[in-house]
Write a structure and sequence with these properties.
By secondary structure, this protein is mainly alpha-helical. 56% of the residues lie in helices and 0% in strands. It starts with a helix and ends in a 9-residue tail after the last helix.
Length: 186
C-alpha cells in the first residue's frame, strides 16, 4: 500500500494521542510544505515527512536515544519513500549517531523545531493568535535562551544550510502556518 496523506493522518492518530503533539505534527507538515514550495521541492513528500516525523514519539517516550528509529518499523507496510524515512530518522541526530547532511534532513530538523518557537511566541501575545505574530519577534525570541528553553536553536539555524536566512525562514514558516492556524489552535 502506498502512503497517502489520508493514511498518514490515520496513522498519526493511531500512534499519537497527545493533542499538542498532533498539532505539532500538523504544523510541521505545513512548514515543510512551505519550505518545499520555497525550494522547488516535492510538497507532498516533504509534507509527509513533517506530518510523520514524530510518529514514534509516544512509543519511544521521546527517548532521544531511540526516537525516530521506530517510525520506519511502523511504516514498513506502506512503501514510504526512502528519503522520507531518512529525513525522519535524521531529525533526531542522537538516535542516528550521524550528522545531518542533506537538504531534506536540514529542512525537517529546522522546520519541525521552529514550530515550537513560533507556538511559544504566539502564546506570549495578548491575543494568542498566530495572525499577529511578526517574524522579527520569533527571531528576537531565538536569542533569548531562557525563552522556550527546550527548543534547539542549533536545529533552527540549520535553515541557513538550505540557503534560507533566519529572518526569511521565520517569515516563511509563519506564513505556511497561517492556513492551518485554527486547526492547530493558534
Amino acid at each position: 500500500m502506498n502512503l497517502t496523506r489520508e493514511t498518514a493522518l490515520q496513522l498519526l492518530h493511531q500512534y499519537v494521542k497527545n493533542e499538542k503533539m498532533i498539532f505539532h505534527c500538523l504544523a510541521s507538515e505545513a512548514v515543510m510544505r512551505g519550505i518545499a514550495r520555497q525550494l522547488g521541492r516535492d510538497e507532498e513528500k516533504w509534507g509527509l515527512a513533517g506530518l510523520l516525523h514524530d510518529l514514534d514519539v509516544e512509543l519511544t517516550n521521546a527517548d532521544p536515544l531511540v526516537h525516530g528509529t521506530q517510525t520506519e518499523i511502523l511504516l514498513k507496510d506502506y512503501h514510504v519513500d526512502e528519503e522520507i524515512l531518512d529525513a525522519i530518522r535524521m531529525h533526531n541526530e542522537c538516535s542516528s549517531g550521524k550528522d545531518r547532511s542533506t537538504e531534506f534532513q536540514h529542512a525537517l530538523a529546522a522546520g519541525e523545531t521552529i514550530t515550537g518557537l513560533i507556538f511559544a511566541t504566539t502564546y506570549v501575545y495578548p491575543e494568542k493568535k498566530l495572525a499577529v505574530v511578526k517574524p522579527k519577534s520569533v527571531v528576537k525570541r531565538m536569542k533569548e535562551k531562557a525563552f522556550a528553553a527546550s527548543v534547539s536553536r542549533e536545529n533552527i539555524i540549520e535553515c541557513e544550510k538550505i540557503g534560507i536566512p533566519l529572518d526569511q525562514f521565520a517569515a516563511l514558516c509563519i506564513e505556511a502556518l497561517l492556513p492551518v492556524s485554527e486547526i492547530i489552535g493558534l
